């Protein structure tokens, strides 16, 4: 079947959209809701004895009645109830006709005209952006607003908190230990509360580090004489989830070998509560984020487990933290014992403004890389700071606060038999610096683009009605020059079609994916195929003059001359990033595969900041020689190429999170 088929429904709607485009795409209804003072957070703060999930149903009554009247919602977001599949796919799912309001299609999947300037102006007023966002950002936001108008909770955040603002003080594009170290540094600095969400928690060096952080936090809380509340969520699929998607985990359960969280007696000054969340069959809780004291939020690509992956984490500050806080409450949904202590305390900017680099209170010596990092490191030693310094050897460079080879760093202590196949001689202009200490910048517009879990194993079109998928589709639709995508897998039909359509419009699409990542699961019926199979089909769909605009690469470790098949578990990449026109980025949890597009719960942030995009794109992990040339013999997929390596992965482990997607 061709990737480029156009449905009759889309063609009809395209004609109707052109005819009625003047009616406006941002309705009075969604305009009103985004300006409401009511959110799940404020409701729960007023009624802490209730639960976020129950309170959510009581918000925005007028919109709810309209929605039920038009049968425009299918509660697939997984935040309204705790039953797995009842009523998940109504009869209207297969033969649902597009709804028209005021002559304008309300389904953003079918929207085929660009928003007018009036639409953009109106959308700019539907968020706490601080400044007017770019037109590209606003075009994407118009599509998202259209979706929220139709499916109120499909963004898994209260609509007034959908559009916000914030800063990115630091990003870590590195192996898991570096990201877990920053989690540690933020956890131990907590004064009041921590909310930690991960897809899969597995007893490992990474989990031990988090456990150490909790124990240290408890000790610090005891010295201060004030308890700290910690809520944690993970997904370890269990038969109980067929009756209750969210299950409180008792201490006896979390002390088992596969989890090994601390005993309550080891963290006596922490009020700890843990929820296991999964929506059978395929509704994986794939979210990975953390909020500390309602001051900072970390959104990451990695689970809390040991994997040979290159990952990405962003450290966010600003009002966007309150948006993620609201999402956290919706994910939890159940009553809290005790409630989070800062429910009544919205985000407050730091005194003296945002701090970047080593001036940020959460930065530590572990965040220093390269020549400049070594200089700062030594300056702290001269100021009397405790420091563990060792003279560098000829082949060692400064990474993560110490001298080591790039291979030692990428091996992360777990791969003693993985060796470099290329000699690394970093220069001052091309150093390996996995910690990106962002240049100081003002608050920039942000939108939380999440999706809720969907358990049904089918992949209907209506399952794409969520903020994440609409944002991705909008990015591909409105791109003018280029799109960059990095993902371990790329096989979801909408993603493939979106990329091909962009290429045909003249947009350069650069894709960084993994060879052999989760091939066993991706090759199953309905999953979209392996990366190699998809690459072959995508190039086969394009005319010869179009193919140069599709630039597809296999991820290659910094110390390798060629990509290593992901089944070897040596040099994988697990980053999830989309950058449109070097201007707007979407970063977070979601992969470009069928599971993330149709089933998993995901948390992502859309950011309007060209400088941050530039700083991210300078850290791509693709090996280049001394002249900056990519090793085309190992990473570029020529037309007609089909790899023969087939990784074997368990699909059950995939759903349970064990394969680390």
Describe the structure.
This protein has 21 helices and 22 strands. The protein is α+β, with helices and mostly antiparallel strands. 52% of the residues are buried. Mean pLDDT is 85; it is low at 1-23, 68-77, 83-106, 620-626 and 631-661.
What key attributes describe this structure?
661 residues, alpha+beta, two-stranded antiparallel ribbon, disordered N terminus, disordered C terminus
Short description:
The protein is an alpha+beta fold.
Please tally the helical runs, counting DSSP H or I stretches of 4 or more residues: 21
Say how many strands there are: 22
- Which sheet architecture does the biggest sheet show? 18 strands, mixed
Shape: globular
Average pLDDT figure: 85
Percent helix: 25-40%
Radius of gyration over all CA atoms, rounded: 24 Å
Instruction: Give the termini distance in whole angstroms.
Output: 27 Å
List the helices and strands and how they pair.
Blueprint: H1 8-19, H2 28-34, H3 40-46, H4 52-56, H5 61-70, E1 100-101, E2 104-105, H6 117-124, H7 135-150, E3 163-175, H8 176-188, E4 193-197, H9 205-224, E5 228-234, E6 246-248, H10 251-254, E7 270-279, E8 283-284, E9 289-292, E10 296-300, E11 309-317, H11 320-332, H12 370-382, E12 397-399, E13 402-404, H13 406-411, E14 435-437, E15 444-448, H14 467-478, E16 482-486, H15 493-504, E17 508-513, H16 519-522, H17 531-541, E18 550-554, E19 572-573, E20 577-580, E21 584-588, H18 594-598, E22 604-608, H19 610-617, H20 632-635, H21 651-656
Parallel strand pairs: 4-5, 5-7, 11-19, 16-17, 17-18
Antiparallel strand pairs: 1-2, 3-11, 3-14, 3-15, 4-9, 6-7, 7-8, 9-10, 10-11, 12-13, 15-22, 16-20, 20-21, 21-22
């Amino acid at each position: 079947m061709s990737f480029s088929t156009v449905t009759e429904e889309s063609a009809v709607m395209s004609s109707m959209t052109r005819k009625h485009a003047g009616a406006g795409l941002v309705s009075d209804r969604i305009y009103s809701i985004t300006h409401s003072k009511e959110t799940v957070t404020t409701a729960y703060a007023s009624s802490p004895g209730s639960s976020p999930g129950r309170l959510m149903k009581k918000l925005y009554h007028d919109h709810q009645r309209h929605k039920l009247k038009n049968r425009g919602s299918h509660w697939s977001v997984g935040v309204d109830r705790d039953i797995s599949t009842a009523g998940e796919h109504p009869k209207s799912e297969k033969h649902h006709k597009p709804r028209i309001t005021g002559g304008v299609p309300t389904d953003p999947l079918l929207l085929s005209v660009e928003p007018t300037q009036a639409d953009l102006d109106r959308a700019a007023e539907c968020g706490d952006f601080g400044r007017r966002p770019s037109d590209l950002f606003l075009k994407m936001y118009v599509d998202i607003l259209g979706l929220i108008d139709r499916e109120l909770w499909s963004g898994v955040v209260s609509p007034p908190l959908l559009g916000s603002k914030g800063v990115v003080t630091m990003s870590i594009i590195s192996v898991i230990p570096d990201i877990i170290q920053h989690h540690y540094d933020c956890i131990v600095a907590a004064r009041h509360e921590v909310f930690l969400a991960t897809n899969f928690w597995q007893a490992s060096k990474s989990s031990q580090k988090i456990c150490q952080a909790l124990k240290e936090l408890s000790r610090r809380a005891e010295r201060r004489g004030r308890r700290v509340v910690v809520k944690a969520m993970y997904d370890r699929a269990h038969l109980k989830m067929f009756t209750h998607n969210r299950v409180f985990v008792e201490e006896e359960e979390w002390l088992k070998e596969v989890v090994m969280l601390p005993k309550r007696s080891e963290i006596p000054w922490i009020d700890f509560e843990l929820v296991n969340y999964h929506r059978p069959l395929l509704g994986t809780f794939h979210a990975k984020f953390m909020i500390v004291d309602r001051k900072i939020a970390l959104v990451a690509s990695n689970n809390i487990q040991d994997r040979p992956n290159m990952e990405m984490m962003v450290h966010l500050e600003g009002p966007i933290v309150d948006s993620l806080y609201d999402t956290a409450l919706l994910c939890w949904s159940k009553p809290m014992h005790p409630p989070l202590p800062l429910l009544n305390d919205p985000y407050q900017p730091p005194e003296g403004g945002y701090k970047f680099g080593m001036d940020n209170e959460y930065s530590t010596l572990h965040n220093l890389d390269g020549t400049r990092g070594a200089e700062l490191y030594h300056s702290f030693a001269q100021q009397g700071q405790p420091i563990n310094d060792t003279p560098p050897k000829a082949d060692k460079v400064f990474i993560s606060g110490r001298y080591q080879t790039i291979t030692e760093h990428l091996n992360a202590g777990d791969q003693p038999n993985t060796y470099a196949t290329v000699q690394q001689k970093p220069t001052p202009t091309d150093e390996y610096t996995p910690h990106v200490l962002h240049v100081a910048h003002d608050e920039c517009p942000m939108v939380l683009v999440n999706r809720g879990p969907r358990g049904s194993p089918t992949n209907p079109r209506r399952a794409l009605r969520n903020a994440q998928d609409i944002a991705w589709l909008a990015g591909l639709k409105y791109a003018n020059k280029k799109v960059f995508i990095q993902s371990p897998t790329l096989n979801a039909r909408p993603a493939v079609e979106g990329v091909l359509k962009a290429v045909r419009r003249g947009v350069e699409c650069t894709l960084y994916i993994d060879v052999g990542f989760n091939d066993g699961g991706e090759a199953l019926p309905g999953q979209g195929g392996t990366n190699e199979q998809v690459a072959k089909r995508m190039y086969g769909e394009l005319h010869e003059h179009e193919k140069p605009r599709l630039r597809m690469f296999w991820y290659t470790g910094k110390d390798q001359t060629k990509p290593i098949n992901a089944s070897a578990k040596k040099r994988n990449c697990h980053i999830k990033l989309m950058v449109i026109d070097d201007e707007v980025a979407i970063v977070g949890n979601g992969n470009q595969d069928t599971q993330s597009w149709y089933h998993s719960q995901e948390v992502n942030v859309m950011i309007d900041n060209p400088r941050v995009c530039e700083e991210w794109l300078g850290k791509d992990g693709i090996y280049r020689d001394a002249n900056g040339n990519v090793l085309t013999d190992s990473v570029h997929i020529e037309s007609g190429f089909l790899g023969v390596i087939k990784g074997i992965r368990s699909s059950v482990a995939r759903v349970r999170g064990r394969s680390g997607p």
